[in-house]
Design goal:
Elements lengths: L5 H24 L3 H10 L13 H15 L7 H8 L18 H16 L13 E5 L6 H12 L4 E5 L1 H4 L6 H15 L3 E5 L3 H4 L9 H19 L4 E7 L7 H6 L2 E4 L5 H11 L8 H10 L5 H12 L6 H10 L5 H14 L7
Parallel strand pairs: 1-4, 1-5, 2-3, 3-4
Amino acid sequence: MIGLKDSDKKNYNTRRRTLLYLIQKYLNDYGYPDIATTLKSEALLNDYEVCDNIDIDIIFLEYCSYQQLKFELPEEWKQFSDMIMRTTLSKNSKIHFKDIIGNDEAITTIKEAVILPLENPLLFENELKPWKSLLLYGPPGCGKTLIAKALCSEIHDYMSFFNITSSVIISKWRGDSEKILNTLFIIARNMAPSVIFFDEIECLTNERNTIHEHESSHRLKSEFLTLLDGIHDSNDNIFVLANTNVPWLIDSAFLRRFEKKILIKLPTIDERQALFHYYLEDSKKWPNHIMEEIKKLSNGFTGDEIRISYVIEKKDVCVNSQLLIDILKSMKPNSYSQYEKHCQWQEEKGSMDRKN
């Protein structure tokens, strides 16, 4: 607990042991004596007599007090820490990397940056360091948020995952936005290893304009830049993942701090076929000329648009290829023209494919 006074350190350790005693007593009372014995042995707990009215509410209140000291936050920031803790995703979304079709480069890079250092820490003992930040960009519906959900599922047992939107950070009160952002990184540092996911990050990092920009917006961006510098300059096990549909709106200072910028591409012709087979099991039995027409009609569609065509067809009791073809003919790819702009931006500022 760097930065705490000696008296606070003692109070912190006392709170921690008190919490362990309460949990051990609760486990004993509610039919888990083996687990309680293991906890007592591992935590080196003594045979203290604890009151007999321990319940979940008492344990929770003690836990809140313990966390307040652990995060080294001023009392006035407690409301911010409570709000940040609510963004922590602890549930498994049941979507894993193996369920995602395409975008292998982005998935491989995320695995190397987040999962590999935990599974093989010896690889990063010397000067070699894993990526600390990654920006995913591309048209809406290509799978940027889906990849983040899959990462959360892959790591939910041993890492903290914070799902942050602009509504969490932005406050109408002067100075509170910077405090919330600071609180987020303090909590992520104390709960490390951690992943902070910023959804639609352009809302927080749009290009700075010294003439028309409000002072509070400028202060928030300056604080954000400082915090991003901090994760790169330290050994804190924090990974920042962000996505955006409009990378050209992000300020160049923020782009520089994202070590990898990866385009989430539209599905290829083979990936589109795999998507139809994934959503429609019967499509695997359709003749080749039917599938060729379906793949041709779905050119330029995002994965989400292919999913929507499946949802529309699913309302019909009888699933058949002709109905799907009619639906695809009535749909237009909304993101295709914007995708060309993303490809151009990739040539100028993005991270190139590994094969290049």
